[in-house]
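Example record for the data management plan.
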Amino acid sequence: FGLKTSQAITILTTIILCSVLFFFLNSTRTGKSMRAFSDNEDLALLSGIDPNKVVLLTWIIAGGLATFAGVLYGLDKIYKPFIFLQMLLPIFSAAIVGGVGNPLGAFIGGYIIALSELFVTFAYKKVLGYLLPENLEPTTMMQFLSTDYKFAVSFIILVIVLIIKPTGIFSGKTI
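Corresponding structural encoding:
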């Protein structure tokens, strides 16, 4: 098991940013007003919450988090034109699986999708080579599915969750 420095930085930064975001949304007045506006716009307006300020701050936070995500992605991967097309389905699946409107759900959904894709498309040849005797060592890659089907795993998980629990694992605000 090897963990590159860039991967450790990504994990640590993600945990710190998510913790700060959760603290902000749950403990500050502005975060509570953002949550209130998200739950019920009319009631938030009657409570004196400025919708322009909430929307502007939400876009600023989303842009900042997207910037961090892009930088962290660039530490470990290579950027190519239209790379977002390959990432769109897993990101969408993670948000739906975790529960739309729930930040913790999106976080957990992301890990569910990522680990499922990894588990199904991982080449177990070396692992089985270490575990099995030499005469039973596999000669093929020993994958459940080829890495070409990685996005199909995301889609299948998305469909299963939509059939069983359409609001996601951590039900948030429904669309």
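Summary line stored alongside the record: The mean pLDDT is 87.
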